[in-house]
Please model this.
Amino acid sequence: MRRRLLALLCVTGSLVSACGVLPGTHERHTVTVWLMKDSASADFLWRFTEDFERTHKDQRLDIRIQEWTGIVDKVGKALEPGAKDAPDVIEVGNTQVPLYVDGGRLADLTLESVRDWGQEHWLPGLAEPGKAGNSQYGVPWYAANRVVIYRKDLFEAAGITHPPKTREEWLADTEKLDVGDDQGIYLAGQDWYTLSGFIWDEGGDLATEKDFEWRGALDTPAALRGMDFYRRLQALGDGPVDADEEHPPQAGVFAGGTVAQIIAVPGLAASIVQQNPELKGRIGFFPVPGKSAARPGRVFTGGSDLVVPRNTDDQFAATDVVGALVGAKWDTELARTMNYVPNKTTLAGAVAGEEGVAAMAAGAAHGRATPNSPQWAAVEADNPIKGYMTKVLSGADPATAARQASRRITDALATSLG
Model:
């Protein structure tokens, strides 16, 4: 059936690139795929390749592993018309997709997304950055996001019998844990990804678009409410107000033995236990609580999308590879192998047996990504959100500090357009 459809398209001229493999030929067409280092294990890639080539007799996979360092420039060059040795499928960070959509450099995958790939069930934090207007260019592959990593023994000692389900319960429990030398939570003052979730929960955003212009939005009432919750939570520990979660690395702080909670990806627990083996078996995970018990809080969802360059010489073959990787069989296999969240909310049950990943999946169902602007990288390059947070946590007027930071976000987005 596929060969008959391919022949029909070649005759009608509906998609010229599809004619790269002629009906009846027995030669394999090589599909070049760029995947990022450590996104998938060597064993997973071997098994996927064997299965794909067995079920697609006219295609051969050439998977090339890329480093994250310098990848934006490398992908940008590969997307140029006439680029030599350009790949047919590329894994990109979910928030990077808007960078590559500009200039019509990516293939529009809306039809396949709606018809074949279950778009209606995709995680929003992966799907939204891959979309421009009504067209889908980035196809969700896997996700990871922050959860609350906590000390089960300290919770028990404080009389807390189950993880909190709401923000107010979370504050109350954290206050019970913040006694003596123990910190209720270690939350660095500039953890802006965590702040973003609180802002989204309140109905706000970091920046908003109107009439094709982006403006900073930290000074809206909703965003200010999110910052106020962050301030109240951060005060129940000794996190530095002028540093982010990597300075010092919070895994090491938690391993010190006097911290009841941190907000991080579950994989950090392995580093904690490595640094303090006495904590083995004492660490648990729960989703960041929401405003009500009806659902967890919103979180920043990181992860990867798959894109197909417009300059591929066989878009049909490229979409075959994307469809196989993001389909239920191999997406859940990747999630189990790498402790990721699958790309669809309907696949969350595949990781339900692992506490940390299950907590991640619950949060990812309501996750978000940074503003869908190709210029957002300019904001992060000299991030005014971090300075804003430090000012508020140091006692500055939140509204004034928010207006200043919002202007800087607006300027950064506008300047980049020039």
User: Anything to note?
Assistant: The longest strand covers residues 29-36. Confidence is low (pLDDT under 50) at residues 1-26.
